[in-house]
Amino acid sequence: xxxxxxxxxxxxxxxxxxxxxxxxxxxxxxxxxxxxxxxxxxxxxxxxxxxxxxxxxxxxxxxxxxxxxxxxxxxxxxxxxxxxxxxxxxxxxxxxxxxxxxxxxxxxxxxxxxxxxxxxxxxxxxxxxxxxxxxxxxxxxxxxxxxxxxxxxxxxxxxxxxxxxxxxxxxxxxxxxxxxxxxxxxxxxxxxxxxxxxxxxxxxxxxxxxxxxxxxxxxxxxxxxxxxxxxxxxxxxxxxxxxxxxxxxxxxxxxxxxxxxxxxxxxxxxxxxxxxxxxxxxxxxxxxxxxxxxxxxxxxxxxxxxxxxxxxxxxxxxxxxxxxxxxxxxxxxxxxxxxxxxxxxxxxxxxxxxxxxxxxxxxxxxxxxxxxxxxxxxxxxxxxxxxxxxxxxxxxxxxxxxxxxxxxxxxxxxxxxxxxxxxxxxxxxxxxxxxxxxxxxxxxxxxxxxxxxxxxxxxxxxxxxxxxxxxxxxxxxxxxxxxxxxxxxxxxxxxxxxxxxxxxxxxxxxxxxxxxxxxxxxxxxxxxxxxxxxxxx
Length: 537
Ligand code: NAD
Prior knowledge:
Elements: H1 2-26, H2 37-40, E1 46-48, E2 50-51, E3 61-65, E4 72-77, H3 81-98, H4 103-119, H5 121-132, H6 136-156, E5 163-165, E6 172-180, E7 183-187, H7 195-207, E8 210-214, H8 220-236, E9 244-247, H9 251-258, E10 265-269, H10 272-284, E11 288-292, E12 297-301, H11 307-319, E13 329-335, H12 339-354, H13 373-388, E14 392-395, E15 410-413, H14 420-423, E16 430-436, H15 439-447, E17 451-452, E18 454-458, H16 462-468, E19 478-481, E20 493-494, E21 497-498, E22 505-506, E23 515-523
Parallel strand pairs: 1-4, 7-8, 7-10, 8-9, 10-11, 12-13, 12-18, 13-16, 15-16, 18-19
Antiparallel strand pairs: 2-9, 3-4, 5-6, 6-23, 14-15, 17-21, 20-22
């Protein structure tokens, strides 16, 4: 009897083990109670990644992997080039309806999208955190940025002003008017999987454009969930769904978009390398491009800086989002008189961060994983190069031994400001700490790299501040004083110069990039005076 029971028990244990093993190796996070927010967003174990008014896809199925544990979240059937083609056609048709809706009424639709996002703020923020790997307050903050830009766009929808200019000809009116472009293609990067689309789409929509979005291959669930939120608003208002079309997919879809004459503007956010190929393709067909590419941002500390402020700023600037913001501080340029003190404080801050590494969805966590295995490889490669080029690993430098893609926040010292690795953007939590003998030298170093995204100086010297923001100061698109290089506000135009691409998104007059300018002359007299007084009779 006892041995029969034992046999039964061990058979059950074996079955349990088998089930457990199978569940562990093939189960999806979407089925686990901790991730029930995924179902709140209308996501399934297998999702369709193409929307043109209907959900239908024929491309390859990809598995979205959670960077915090390396486990599959759910699957998405992505778009093929044929699906892409169908989306453009549907978007062009949708534009016929959308362009006729008055701008303030388009603004009302964007307002409703903002409200729909508000209702899903938490689950969408959790999804961003789960799929991208950034900590939850940043995931929620990203969705909030989309909501904020919706509010901004609603106001803008009543302010897309043209001009009336004095004509030199009697009985003539000279006007300048802005018209929409048509289909705007948005190709976005993994590190801001929702906000970048939000910045582009809210503004482009009030301008009268329709959108076709291709997000990063590794964040397809964010693209699908976001489009579902928008779809509900469009359907409720009887507006064609292809006003906000989606075609998830890889380089083939992005390439098709760059080469497509039916897409007058391609807004690209990503690496300088890919951005350049996209820009060349778009230029070949005389399309417009809006480029938001890589940065190599410096934070300068002058001898007179408030070092308490500096220490709080640099931890977030260098190690926040595990170094995966386009505006992350990659070069910390310290005046020799404060070098030792600031470096000591930075190391102390990093020691505290190491104790707050973990699942980005958990509260109290300050530092999450790299987004993918590729990121870990790039981290390791950059460190080998840095050491070869004379750098010393002052802190960190190792891959963290736990599931997922975690690496230590890393400080490199002793390397030359002109070392090739320092001149490059490595999209990882590595900061090069450089010692300068004067702040003028630091400004030269700030400007000597190819990229021109963000920059920051810490000083109390008013004269220096005005030099920094003037013609001989920082040559970046974002120039900060006494705040970190990261964390931009939507009210300002966002973007960078040189190899960062020159595009501007979000606030002020960025909307003009989503429209074409028409200069209009109307003769309301009964005469026909030709230009330059020419008589052609
Ligand atoms: P990436 O260049 O690898 O990919 C960006 C997008 O391009 C993805 O959607 C990808 O699928 C697509 N793509 C790939 N090949 C393509 C091709 N041949 N044609 C068209 N599209 C193609 O960039 P990433 O690794 O996702 O993101 C990190 C980079 O993005 C960093 O360099 C970072 O600085 C930059 N970035 C810049 C900003 C900014 O505002 N300046 C913001 C976020 C990220």
